[in-house]
Amino acid sequence: MKIAVAGFQHETNSFVAGHADFDAFQAPGGWPRFSRGNAVLDTLPDSAAPMSGALRVARAHGCRIEPLLWCIALPSGPVDDSAFERIAGDIESGFAKLVAAGALDGLYLDLHGAMVTSRHPDAEGELLRRLRQIAPDPFPIVCSLDPHANVSRAMVDHATLLDAYRTYPHVDMAETGGRAMEQLVAMIASGARPQKLFRPIPFLVPLDTQCTLTDPMRSLADLRHDLARTEGVDSISQCFGFPLADISDTGPSLILYGENRDGLAQAADRLESAWLESEHAFGRALPTAKDAIADALARLETDPTGPVVIADTQDNPGGGGTGDTAGMLRALLEANASGAVLVHIAQPDAARAAHEAGTGQSLDISLGGQLTPEYGAPVSGPFRVGALGDGRFVGVGPMYHGNQIDLGPVALLEKNGVLVIVASRKMQASEPALLHHLGLDPARLPILVVKSSVHFRGAYQDMADAVIPALAPGPVTARLDTLGYRHAIRRVAGAATENEHA
Ligand SMILES: [Zn+2]
Predict the structure, then answer these.
(1) Which of 121, 262, 298, 480 could make a disulfide contact with 247, Cβ separation 3.0–4.6 Å?
(2) In angstroms, what is the span from residue 146 Cα to ligand 1's centroid?
(3) Helix or strand or coil: residue 450?
(4) First CA to last CA distance, the chain
């Protein structure tokens, strides 16, 4: 069995400045580098990426693997059309050559599902449309997706099967790649192709209530699991959607596959009803940074062990945040939250200055607020340099486990007892290895503030006394009703219910 594989991932936030150019795909923080051809087989198997699991399964089945390329860029504004054409073009031409040479049995794609370019709001739909032209049905094309995918009709039509991670935090990426590959191998062996059912959900869900560790999503995840056991239903994915992409396809969806058409429809009806019943619970309000820190300090008075983990969700680099807003740092200083640690502000000149000054020295710098001053001014020094590191370490948390991470020079700074990690690159704060790298044990901190919406829970939920997502000013807005969508057509979760009472 001969199977071509490729990966091309981006999550696009339409509401932040900047674009992802070709360079952004070269060495993204926390992920493997751009790799082509056989380099994919060398670098990806040791990572947490879906491709890793897919390769493992393909090898276990004795498949001959034809690697095209694999790349990812950190979430940001739209992908440049030139970068999209260059990368998509390489996948297309490599695939076309293999198809023309004959004896290619299938294609596996490691996609995100929420990529937008200026010309193609549904970039994955466009990529799949082109690949399908090269290899018409019934040639099997199977994709793993991030559940933040804004799934389109074109994606469903042109792929034989789409299969999304079940979890958020995403702790099953490699598992999903492996499952997608198992299904591809089974399709090739049997020659059968499943029926499809695509059901968009009519409202948008903010990131912080999409978490599968908490209700209502936890119950929906359990229900999906139960329904997937229905006779003749092979696969059910529920995508939460990426609500910060302003395209007509933005929003959650259900995608079901199998031979039993009635079974698919009944399972979709059950799951859709449960989503609709949960609508209001998805729209909960979050406290301000000041209130969240006051809450944390009050909890620590009765139980001083900690940590209380506060999520700076509106500057989550995993949602397109810059990783450099200073609102949480300012609020910690104003509250005299001594011993609290903020992870992390991405500011290369601050990290460099700390390395030049050396441990124990004082630094007179302005920290944060450099890239997006509209979300608050920098915090002025002096800061004391507490620890230094080269920013290279291996992921140990459930999400980035095994990934070679390179954040460039990093430093631990202190001001009035409040600690802040600075790094040369941004990355979602879901990896405890960064704290270990600077001599910190997250379990022993009173307050840990993370620039993350949900992924941090994978590493910290179990050790935390409490988890408080909170609002400091930032670009990854949790209040979807304030965004002013121009293209997204679905309502914000809870909006209809509120209007009914207005
Ligand atoms: Zn995601």
Answers:
(1) 121
(2) 5
(3) strand
(4) 61
Predicted pLDDT of residue 103: 86
Q: How far is the CA of 11 from the centre of ligand 1 (A)?
A: 8
- pLDDT tens digits, 88-131: 999 999 999 999 999 899 999 999 999 999 999 999 999 999 99
Q: Are 146 and 10 in contact (CB under 8 A)?
A: no
Residue in 217, 111, 226, 242 with CA at minimum distance from that of residue 164: 111
C-alpha to C-alpha distances, 258 to 23, 111, 183, 221, 441, nearest whole angstrom: 40, 22, 11, 19, 47
The fold for domain 196-283+478-502 equals Alpha-Beta Plaits (3.30.70)
Distance 363 CA to ligand 1 centre (A): 37
**CATH architecture, range 1-193:** 3-Layer(aba) Sandwich (3.40)
Q: Compute, in degrees rounded to 10, the torsion defined by CA atoms 66, 81, 316, 47.
A: 10
> Is the preceding peptide bond at 382 cis, omega within 30 degrees of 0?
yes
> HSE-up of 164 (CA within 13 Å, CB side)?
29
- What pLDDT digit, counting tens, does each position of 228-252 carry? 999 999 999 999 999 999 999 999 9
**What CA–CA distance (Å, rounded) separates 222 from 225?**
5
Q: Is 273 helix (H, G, I), strand (E, B) or coil?
A: helix
388 CA to middle of ligand 1, Å? 31
Provide the β-strand partners of residue 199.
Answer: 254
Q: Which residues pair with 145 in a beta bridge?
A: 164
pLDDT tier at 497 (50, 70, 90 boundaries)?
very low
pLDDT at 325 over 50: yes
- Cα(317) to centroid(ligand 1), Å: 12
pLDDT at 217: 97
Q: Ligand 1 centroid to 242 CA: how many Å?
A: 8
Cα separation, 45 vs 315, whole angstroms: 31
CB–CB of 351/331 below 8 Å?
no
- Residue 53: what are its φ and ψ, rounded to 5°? -65, -35
Q: Domain-by-domain residue ranges, the chain? A: 1-193, 196-283+478-502, 289-477
User: Please, are residues 419 and 413 in contact by the beta-carbon 8 Å criterion?
Assistant: yes
Give the H or E element holding residue 343: strand 341-346
3-state helix, strand, coil in the chain (%, to 5): 35, 25, 40
Q: Which two tokens stand for residue 295?
A: 């809450």
pLDDT digits (tens, 9 = 90+) for 292-321: 999 999 999 998 888 999 999 999 998 889
Q: Over 149-190, what HEC string results? A: CCCCHHHHHHCCEEEECCCCCCCCHHHHHHHHHHHHHHHHHH
DSSP E strand boundaries for 15-112: 35-36, 64-72, 106-111
What is the mean pLDDT of the segment spanning 211-232? 96
The pTM (predicted TM-score) of the whole model is: 0.90
Token pair 């009703």 is at which residue?
481
